[in-house]
């Protein structure tokens, strides 16, 4: 099955982001990506938007709500946020928006760095299956997938989307 | 002996067996308790240090906390006095958002005659998740780990002369941050090796991480009988032992643990085994000076060295929090898997 071309989606996202930032009067956002896929997308988006401020990176492993079920992720990369977030406009970027739990964790972590003036969510792919009241303002592609299907971003070079079928046995686990 | 004797002075536990891994690791090799460094592999030690590295970066945040262990209760069970270790364990737990209970047994039930096992069962009944144990008897943490309810983790915060694994890990973390690769390093551990659980854990950790050369420097009266089996080079002369080393770890002269006269006098000890500015020049020019604390200034280390440019003694304390956060989150994660 074919998947959308990532560079084309990025161009479209950049266009939406420019419009969004302009209508909301945001001159200098901080672009923050969520490890790993979100960081790749955030970097491309930052380039396309000509944002000069350094890229922020979030690893939300310490904020996950499933730690008590799945335990510690062995490789947690340090979160890097360029500066104090008080009063800043954050453009939060992830690859796939699914349940919304990753974004909830990312918001919790962001607020431990300060009180941003606003947080706008941009995602490469928005799919069905939301479990929390979270929505993206900037979306590359909408996809309807079954419970047994996932969409994964492979990268960093070249970036491409891949549809993965999950073994129903794994879903039970 | 019966188990109820442990809380009483004079009772001796058998030395822990050589293979505690069955106890401290899960079936799939994850850390469930942290009792001793001995027997752990290089991958696991590296994973602990890497995890600690992620926590070390947290200090930049406005809120120096993560919600990882929210709702967990951690009990500091200290049968022996400690300030630094207990407070860094407490801070580590709090930065992981756990609730912490400090139980000082010396002033509590032990003096009323309650056995260790009774104390344990009572605290367990309060639905706690982790015990951090310090005890003057070797093997106490193993004993508790064998008897706690499933789902509770035990961290050894120092047992007798046996082990102090998180101290050794924070020392490894400090060395790695400054020096990187262990295989090229010469490390000298100087002082009271005989009474030091820290030294034993350090030697195991340094060897597991494949350190180039591990030296112990001490008078014969402060070396354990089995020192030959520890995989170290033994020096009885400090000047020779310090030659070209990259890291010097000074140990505290444990006056309270000396039952017999191991030394003529503290003054003579300082003359022979005290780390002075002059002696430091024998080591590599970028040598690190470490000490697990509390340092006896003028007994094992000159003040000018302890506070000098080579000293990373206070960094060790800071890193102790990150390393303990790493171990706590890993053992709590392993239970769930």
Structure report:
The complex is a heterodimer of chains A (173) and B (337). Chain A is an alpha/beta fold. Chain A has one domain (6-142): Rossmann fold (3-Layer(aba) Sandwich). Helix content of chain A is 29%, strand content 26%. Chain A has 5 helices and 7 strands. In chain A, helix 4 links the parallel strand 3 (89-97) and strand 4. In chain A, helix 1 (6-23) packs across helix 2. The two termini of chain B are 36 Å apart. Chain A binds chain B through residues 59, 61-63, 67-72, 74-79, 81, 84, 108-109, 111-114, and chain B through 30, 47, 50-51, 53-54, 57, 60-63, 65-68, 329-330, 332-337.
Helix content of chain B: 25-40%
Domains of chain B, number: 2
Largest sheet of chain A: 5 strands, parallel
Largest sheet of chain B: 5 strands, parallel
Rounded to the nearest angstrom, the radius of gyration of chain B is: 19 Å
Counting helices, strands and paired strands, the structural category of chain A is alpha/beta
The greatest inter-chain interface is formed by:
A-B, 24 and 23 residues
Tally of contiguous helical segments of chain A: 5
CATH architectural grouping of the largest domain in chain B: 3-Layer(aba) Sandwich
Strand content of chain A: 25-35%
Q: For the largest sheet of chain B, list the strands in their spatial order.
A: 7-6-5-8-9
Number-wise, the strands of chain B total 9
The global form of chain B is globular
Tell how many strands the DSSP assignment of chain A holds. Answer: 7
Q: Determine the mean pLDDT of chain A.
A: 90
What are the defining features of this structure?
heterodimer; A: 173 residues; alpha/beta; Rossmann fold; five-stranded parallel beta sheet; two-stranded antiparallel sheet; B: 337 residues; 2 domains; four-stranded parallel beta sheet; disordered N terminus; Uracil phosphoribosyltransferase (chain A)
